[in-house]
Design brief:
Elements: E1 2-6, H1 11-22, E2 26-30, H2 33-41, E3 48-52, H3 57-66, E4 73-78, H4 82-90, E5 95-99, H5 103-114, H6 125-137, E6 144-147, H7 154-163, E7 172-176, H8 182-190, H9 207-210, E8 215-219, H10 226-238, E9 240-241, E10 250-251, E11 255-260, H11 264-270, H12 275-281, E12 284-287, H13 298-312, H14 322-330, H15 336-350, H16 379-382, H17 385-403, H18 408-422, H19 427-434, H20 438-450, H21 462-466
Parallel strand pairs: 1-2, 1-3, 3-4, 4-5, 6-11, 6-12, 7-8, 8-11
Antiparallel strand pairs: 9-10
Helix pairs in contact: 2-3, 13-15, 18-19, 19-20
């Protein structure tokens, strides 16, 4: 993990830095907030900033946001009282570390805020076969395309590849192509020169240069604009990039890993994705099976997430009851591992007995797990069939009546917003369920917002109340 320390390196802060280094952090240091932003702008990336509470943390975060640099902040300091610590957190810090530091606290904060611990856990033969192939090609320089449904663990696999590569001691940089508007993605990837466009107040190093020597993950590559695909193809082929507004090419040495939850061959046929770029990216394809295709992973993943979130929330880990374990294995998990992780986080918080029973396991909308449908008939599910079928028939009848009198546009709007609410505001998940691109969804939401319709923000809704993870 890369740690940027901001503040005067006094004895106590220096001790905290040494403790962080002892836990594997690579530390850089500056004294002022403007120096921190400048360092990040130059491509000297960081996973976490440790900032003296006497520095204007709100202004530092605002300056970074203006450059589209998002690095979590923890505040620290000597002799800070409760009010000053609270002020630092209100200003945007995720945590406050009192100095002199405790080794256990430093380790816990680094782990909790950076969330680097994402091990590749599997017990199912279908997934183990994919991991074996990944281990076989990890030390190569080949570009790798990771495909699979949303939530199956594509970024976790990308990190696994990087860790097993010859570039493991170099940066791993991830860019979500679906989350950044087209007009900003080029600058985010390739950087820009001062004055290249309105708001470009200084040179900004892009993700290609930041990842130099290491690995660049292009997440959801299918959402990239066709014009930018051509520039990406040149960067991969010639190992040079052009900053926006730049006058000469910049050499880069990176390995590309890309992910997609869409069929790129179909996108090529539809003319939305370049065939030559697909060939460059897809030297090796790793298709991650959905969770329902690898049921043998469900139990081991549940146990891992329970340990993780019990520790994060300061509660003792509870075993999963036999009935709950059977229900977990029988559920379809349309959101895959991500949905399972969030469900286990909620279960850790909601469980009240000696075990995590089935009542503590809730779907994103708050319903009990047993109401969510199963992958195959089971003894438990069968006892609910009649009641669920009757309820479904009533709901279907009510929904059909509610559609009468609406225009197609109104029905489409209702479907999109209801799906977005169901996905807790997650645009990528909603687009996948609706069968449209993230760009189409974004355009629809902008249209609704212009009409004055409230748009669900990410992580809104019931899951927030249950403490669901992202």
């Amino acid at each position: 993990m890369r740690l940027l320390v901001v503040g005067r390196l006094s004895g106590q802060l220096a001790t905290a830095v040494k403790m962080a280094m002892a836990h594997g952090a690579k530390v850089q240091h500056v004294e002022r907030a403007d120096q921190a932003t400048e360092q990040l702008r130059r491509g000297q990336g960081a996973d976490l900033m440790m900032v003296d509470y006497r520095i204007d943390i709100a202004a530092l975060i605002a300056a970074n946001d203006a450059e589209r640099i998002h690095v979590p902040v923890v505040a620290c300091g000597v002799d800070a009282d409760a009010r000053e610590a609270a002020d630092a957190i209100r200003a945007g810090a995720k945590e406050f570390i009192p100095l002199p530091p405790e080794a256990d606290l430093i380790a816990a904060v680094l782990s909790a805020v950076a969330d680097d611990e994402r091990p590749m856990i599997s017990a199912d033969p279908a997934m183990k076969a994919v991991i074996s192939l990944a281990d076989q090609v990890a030390r190569s320089e080949a570009s790798i395309l990771i495909t699979g449904e949303s939530g199956v663990g594509k970024e976790v696999m990308a990190r696994h590849l990087h860790t097993g590569s010859k570039r493991a001691d170099k940066p791993f940089i991830s860019v979500n192509c679906a989350a950044i508007p087209d007009n900003l993605l080029e600058s985010e990837l390739f950087g820009h020169e001062k004055g290249a466009f309105t708001g470009a107040v200084a040179r900004r190093i892009g993700k290609f240069e930041e990842a130099d020597g290491g690995t660049l993950l292009l997440d959801e590559i299918s959402e990239m604009d066709a014009r930018l695909q051509a520039k990406l193809l040149r960067a991969i082929q010639e190992r040079v990039i052009d900053r926006v507004g730049g006058s000469k090419p910049v050499p880069v040495n990176i390995r590309i890993i890309a992910t997609s939850n869409r069929d790129l061959a179909k996108a090529v046929a539809e003319g939305t994705f370049r065939e030559d770029l697909l060939y460059r990216l897809n030297v090796v394809n790793l298709r991650l099976p959905s969770l329902r295709e690898r049921p043998g992973d469900i139990a081991v993943l549940c146990d891992h997430f329970i340990r993780k979130y019990a520790a994060a929330n300061g509660v003792p880990p509870r075993p999963i009851s036999v009935e709950a374990r059977r229900a977990l294995v029988g559920h379809r998990w349309p959101g895959n591992v991500r949905e399972l992780e969030n469900a286990m986080h909620r279960a850790v918080l909601l469980a009240t007995g000696a075990e995590i029973d089935v009542d503590a396991i809730r779907l994103p909308d708050g319903r009990p797990l047993l109401e969510g449908g199963a992958a195959a008939p089971s003894p438990i599910a069968s006892t609910y069939d009649a009641g669920v079928a009757g309820h479904a028939a009533q709901m279907a009848d009510a929904m059909t009546r509610s559609f009468v009198g609406q225009t197609v546009a109104e029905m489409e709007k209702t479907l999109i917003l209801d799906t977005l609410n169901h996905c807790l505001g997650n645009r990528t998940h909603a687009a996948t369920i609706l069968g449209i691109s993230i760009r189409t969804l974004r355009n629809k939401l902008n249209e609704y917002a212009d009409e004055g319709t409230p748009i669900p923000a990410p992580q809104s809704g019931v899951a927030a109340a249950y403490g669901a993870a992202g």
